[in-house]
Amino acid sequence: MKKIDFTPQEESAINEAFKELLAIYMQSEHSKKEQRIRTAFSFAKKAHDKARRKSGEPYIHHPIAVARIVCQEMGLGSTSICCALLHDVVEDTDYTVENIEHFFSPKIAEIVDGLTKIKGDKVIGKDKSLQAENFRRLVLTMNDDPRVVLIKIADRLHNLRTLGSMPLNKQKKIAGETLEFFSPLAHRLGLYTIKSELENLSFKYDQPERYEEISQKLLKYENGIEVFFHDLVEPLREKLTESKLNFELTYRLKGVYSISQKMRRKQISFEEMADIFAVRIIFDAKRFSDEILICRQIQAYVEQTYQTRQDRLRDWLIRPKPNGYQALHLTVMLPSKHQIEIQIRSRRMHDIAEQGLAAHWRYKDGDKGGEDAIMVELLAQMRDILQYRDSSATEFLDNFKASLYANDIYVFTPKGEEIHLPFGATVLDFAYAVHSGLGDECMGAKIDHKLYPCNHKLKCGDQIEIVNITDQVRCEPSWIETVVTPNAKIKIQATLRRLQKAICLKGEEIFLTTISKYGIKPDKALIDNFTHFYGVNTPDELYINLGSDEIKIDEDLNKIEKAVAQEGNALNIKAIIAYISRASKQENTIPKTSMPATPINKKEVYQLEVKNAQANYLLASCCKPILGDEITGVITKNGQVYVHRSSCSRAMQIKSTQGDRLLSVMWAGQEVKAFLTSIFISGVDSKGLLGTICNIISNQLSLQIKTVNVTTNDGVFESQFDIDIPSLDMLRKLFVRLKEEDNIISVKRLEN
Ligand code: MN
Questions:
Q1: What is the predicted pLDDT for the residue at 382?
Q2: How many helices (H) and strands (E) does the chain have?
């Protein structure tokens, strides 16, 4: 670090920044422990001495800014502010946790110690499990004191706000990690405003072009919405004014990142997005106990004014979401057939929705338990994240991520028992939530007198009766993809392991009885040779294939016996091994039941520009990038570079867990080569539709079709085309042309 004395201007800027922080704290409703904060500031300033940030500014500005976020945007008090000021002292300077305990308090020392041990933004681990362990520790420290996590989020937010001065690959790593862990965590803690900012900032660094494109469109959209909004809500405004309510009628726009996510998930364009805009009614209630009643009153006004869709009613009044979100959402249908969401909340509900903890603090009525009491409450809320503390690091991480999005819908058993499930949960999730035995036997479900398959997605309020045959375990590997709850995943994995063990034992028995028929006793060399012979990796895999009838060792042994006899030899271990090693040298003489080949297409190598590196680049076949896509390079252990689309989920995972394997890459010049890409087209089955599609692709746009796969079912046409495409521009052109066809309902590019 550079050790240049601060200029008088810099010194006064530091003091100014601290004064602002202090002023914000003094205006808050916390007990005024000014001296404590002054001491922490002096201590931190002295400790960081002349250190500077990458941008060149004095380092102390960073802890001051983090403390300010903690105070102003999270609403926390003096303990947290002191810890934020001191959060980098132990890690970056010669001072120890003991020093901090001596000068401040054991509590502050404990929190700073927690912050020092979790280095979310300073890479410690090269492999995934180490990083996973790091996050696991981060979440588990919530159990000791949730302030560690809150200050860490504030730290991350400030680092993102000042990310510009970091090298490009570091930016992408921090951005990826934030999207993967910190923003879901902020979401779970109810810090909505901070969550959105984390997402949008990360997105800006992760996919700058897409970010720019969408924010431009959003800006234009907002400019156009004012008049529409005014006309739309006028009749409602009149009714509300008449009722003498104290209210604010406003609107909210979706964030750039959530827009992008939804466009990708639903494969729709910006213009097709239905919920960029929502109306918000925020009212003031004199008494806490009046709130729900007023909500219902406003709901009635809305229903008198517009046509509402009862099936889209979302009621979180009596039963708030686990992160504390409380509101009533209605969807209204305009004469123009546009649908608009209207959100109704009290001022208190609104503040809690936007700021989480800060608002809880403000609305804490009467009994003052202080900040520590809030932390206890927060911990109780976090229980379902922490219940996985005994699993392995990677398992924990997966479950943790899943549980961040937990409990979005509630459904009912036939007896009317209520069960909470995350949004997107299927019949199987429900079955496993009721009982793991019921899950294993699930064939489908009866909902509203109709029969639905296991992968059917449940709706809020569904009453579900699972259809099963007792004692018939139907669990299969594909089920893991069908469920979304960690609970169901864990149970399916356990059942599959149990089933596999049984098959493995059966296979081993088949192996032993078959060879004993030929008078042979097994030994290690023989088993190894058979393993090799069938192209599997381990004896267990061999037994599983035998047990599930994939391999017929009896037939093969028969063949071997004949072959050996022709040479005038008797069948024994030596003869078998000799035969097998000969056979494996001649390729393809016997079909192998091996695992599928690696998912990477090794043949195609493209020229790309990479800073300071010379290597060959392969296109990852999971996301099949094409010229014009935003891309990220990932370097493997043996130096091979794979190019992924920046939006690829595999690449996202690497970004968040193994950031040091990233390379920033870009397309070099105009490639003339074609890229293989897969698109999915669905529509209404009609005569000549396939011909029309082929005509557009191959005649009108002169693209080459590699493979086509078409199915029609009950009037629905579904097809997958693998085509050679020169660039993203051409792909967009193709999409526009296809979507012009009346009978084509959706066109999307396949990923993974
Ligand atoms: Mn920091």
A1: 64
A2: 31, 22
pLDDT of residue 367: 44
Instruction: Mean pLDDT check: name the lowest of 147-151, 542-546, 629-633, 727-731.
Output: 629-633
**Does pTM top 0.70 for this prediction?**
no
Contact 175, 202 (CB under 8 A): yes
- Calpha distance 280→236 (Å, rounded): 12
pLDDT given at position 402: 59
Contacts of 573 (CB under 8 A, 6+ apart): 520, 523, 525, 526
End-to-end CA distance of the chain: 43
CA of 266 to the centre of ligand 1 (A): 37
How many angstroms does the Cα of residue 93 sit away from the middle of ligand 1? 13
250 forms beta bridges with: 280
121 CA to centre of ligand 1 in angstroms? 8
Ligand 1 center to 88 CA (angstroms): 6
Report how far residue 84's alpha carbon sits from residue 649's, in angstroms, rounded to the nearest whole number. 33
Of residues 648, 595, 640, 594, the one with CA closest to residue 621:
648
* Annotated catalytic residue within 10, 92, 101, 671: 92
pLDDT value at 533 more than 60 = yes
C-beta separation of 675 from 626 below 8 A: yes
Give me the sheet containing 464-468, strands edge to edge: 450-452, 442-447, 464-468
The four Cα atoms 41, 43, 45, 48 give a dihedral, to 10 degrees, of -140
Residue type, 558: N
Q: How many CA atoms lie within 13 A of 263 on its CB side?
A: 18
Clarify whether 92 is annotated catalytic.
Answer: yes
Residues 360-381 pLDDT 10s:
666 655 445 566 666 776 666 6
Dihedral sign of CA atoms 308, 313, 318, 321 in order? negative
Dist. CA 357–CA 292, nearest whole Å: 21
91 is catalytic: yes
- Give the residue among 231, 220, 219, 223 at the shortest CA–CA distance from 334: 231
Q: Ligand 1 centre from 69 Cα, in Å?
A: 12
| Active-site choice (16, 91, 476, 609) | 91
Within a 10 A sphere around the Cβ of 117, how many other Cβ atoms? 14
Q: 3-state class of 147 per DSSP? A: helix
Pair 703, 723: CB distance under 8 Å: yes
Tokens standing for 220? 């234009």
Query: Which pLDDT score is estimated for 101?
Result: 93
* Lookup: tokens for 297: 């009153």
Residue 122 CA to ligand 1 centre (angstroms)? 9
Strands (E), 426-524: 442-447, 450-452, 464-468
Q: Could you identify the residue written with the tokens 């001296």? A: 35
Q: How much distance in Å is there from the Cα of 162 to the middle of ligand 1?
A: 11
Express each pLDDT in 658-690 by its tens digit: 666 777 777 665 444 678 888 989 888 888 888
Residue 394, exposed/middle/buried by CB under 10 A (0-12, 13-18, 19+)?
middle
Helix (H, G, I), strand (E, B) or coil at 728: helix
Distance 671 CA to ligand 1 centre (A): 43
Please tell me the distance between residue 264's alpha carbon and the centre of ligand 1 in angstroms: 33
Q: Is residue 430 within 8 Å of residue 464, measured between CB atoms?
A: yes
Rounded to the nearest 10 degrees, what angle do helices 291-305 and 208-242 cross at? Answer: 90
DSSP 8-state symbol, 58: B
CA distance 231 to 234: 5
pLDDT per residue as tens digits for the range 345-355: 999 899 888 87
226-251: per-residue pLDDT in tens? 888 988 899 999 999 998 889 999 99
Report the SS3 class of residue 182.
helix
Distances (CA, A) of 112 to 22, 69, 529: 20, 17, 58
The CA 160 to ligand 1 mean position distance, Å, reads 11
